[in-house]
Fold:
Amino acid sequence: MPTKKSVMTSSPTKTTPITDYNDPMSELESLNRSLSQVSELVNSLSPKTQFEKSITNIVSLLCKNVQSLAQNCGVVSSGLDAVEVNLAKTDQYSRRDTVVVTGLEYKKETETYDNLCGAVATELSTSGIKVSPSDFSACHRNGNRIKSITVKGKQLRVPPSITVRFRSSNKKDLVLNKHRNFVNGKPKSVRVVQSLNGHYQSLKNSINNFLREKNIQISWIHWRSASSGICVKFDGDAILSRIHSMADFLKQFNKI
Structure:
């Protein structure tokens, strides 16, 4: 068989992901289960006195109220999840014409906007689609610090990534579909990916982690469009699409 993870509410000091409000729902469901067990126990006692009957009635009524509250909270929670996804879709759609380039050499002292655009255009043209600086409406480095990381005992210098917005989302799609980040199974030093917002980047990472834990290989995983969302291509012919949440992914994955 082929290879899971926020709309913000205003706050004086920070923003809070909607998903943070799902924890009380779990506590409510736990309370509901506990009260149901208490109700079953009380009912099994066959109350005889008026006092015992009153206690039984109170417990039963309490259980019904908590069950009703849990159902209503479930509807609200589902509604919040839907709002989160819809806002994430809208935000991601605004990035449909934008890619992120990583690994491109950085010479802070001599790099200008023009030679940066030229270097990016040259790299993107390796896709087989001719790209020129005039195809970009914006192109900039994301910071100016070169990071140092250790990979397999080796120190690597990682230049800041570059955000590139195309004038035409159709041309961006052509380039992204043709550009290869791997050669003979090995990653290239310069890579090009779709620009993702926090929701879809987190979702993509969760899916990758899920598949990695199961030792399932995939050919690629990308955001394709507002309707298709995240798409996953397995080494065989299976392709999962229209993934906007981990629930969407698992629902399709479990059918493979």
User: Anything to note?
Assistant: The helical segments are 23-43, 50-93, 113-124, 169-178, 198-213, 246-253. The longest helix spans residues 50-93. Confidence is low (pLDDT under 50) at residues 3-22.
